[in-house]
Amino acid sequence: MTLDRDPDAQSADIPMPAPLHLWRDERPLPDWVQQLAEEFDVDELADVIIGRCLSIAFPNQAHDDEFRGYLTASIRANARCLRSVIAGELVLEDVYLEQVLSFAKVQAQLRIPQKAMQRSYRVSFFTMWEAWSAHLRQVIAERDIDRDEAALAQQLLTQTILGYQDFVASQVAETYTRDYEALNRSRAHMRRGMVRDILRDEGGVLSASDAAILSYDLTSRHIAVLLPTVAEGAATQLAVGLRAAVSCQHSLVYPLTLSSTVVWLGRIGEWKRTVLEALDAVLVEAGVPATVGDSHAGIDGFRATLAEALDAERIRAAWDRPSAPSVVHHRDVGLEILLMRDPSQARQFVERELGALAGDTVEAARLRETLEASFRFGSHVAAAEHLQLHEHTVRNRLHKAEELLGHSLSERRTELQVAARLMRLLQGVERG
Known about the structure:
Elements: H1 31-36, H2 42-56, H3 65-86, H4 98-109, H5 114-143, H6 147-185, H7 187-199, H8 208-214, E1 221-227, H9 232-246, E2 250-255, E3 261-267, H10 273-286, E4 290-292, E5 296-297, H11 298-318, E6 327-329, H12 334-339, H13 343-354, H14 362-377, H15 380-387, H16 391-405, H17 413-431
Parallel strand pairs: 4-6
Antiparallel strand pairs: 1-3, 1-4, 1-5, 2-3
Helix pairs in contact: 2-3, 2-5, 3-4, 4-6, 5-6, 9-10, 11-17, 13-17, 14-15, 14-16, 14-17, 15-16
């Protein structure tokens, strides 16, 4: 998404706005003000701006690492460029910020409202002015600068920052608007807009032309395959293999963030276990984590299966490693989803039921693993085979677990089984 362009050739395809000269005072900044720019820590300032922009302008993207990377690169480039202008190393007319304009393209792609983008720039430049003014005041006090000279320096610094702000914000607005309008005209982004409206229950009945653009039958039985680490391009390629493996009639790819995607697969018939196993095999072979919603029919089912995949993803992401499966189905973690809605209550339940077995020790973990295998497979022999242990070792461990619990395993079998399943999730949440 970077703009592979020669700064000297930028006017060939995108005319950049000329700086506005809003003030009559065109005197340059005093030499001592330009020199103080050399000692100004712009990276520390950039960290402050990043935090403010994420909390104020982009709260919904705060946990998207890729978005944060673009934002960070944009803000750091902006802050360093402003320092060069203040230091007299660069004139405003020569300012061209490739990373800043690239970030504008990213925002357009993600359909971030322009008001959020504009707010981020107001926050950024206010923070810059605030920091530079404080730095200037400190130097004025330390050097006992004459009052009139100090007032002039503050005036010219403010003019420089505000002039820079207007020039950069105008470039960004033009880039954002151009790319946003181009995306609106493209078939892929029209499809994204339709999906977004459907998920918000704002789409209504699709017209024949809209249905043709969507190219996905909303009346079929859907499953949503959430790919939390796969970007849209790679997910589109993977969807071809998924569709072939399960012989489904329809597929639809939709990016949730820059680095996560959902693939809906639609069939006329039921989603049988053998079909889902074929789906899992493709995902495992591809080596990507995934969560799968249950099958549901119609437009309500289209929304429901994604909601289930999102719920299952919270469990998969919290699952303690290395025991976590790479592919998780909603139907298999319904109990965990229900009980993990309140992690604090879940932790109290686990500690109450497991007692000493809830400890963060190698022995406790070994006993929990044996306990869970015994419940899961129903016999010492099967549990021993799964754990690759001798049957007597399994018996000894289960006996030790009973001693620590203070009662037989059969006395609270269901509670112990649930607590052991929750324990691995709580460890993943607390370590993550």
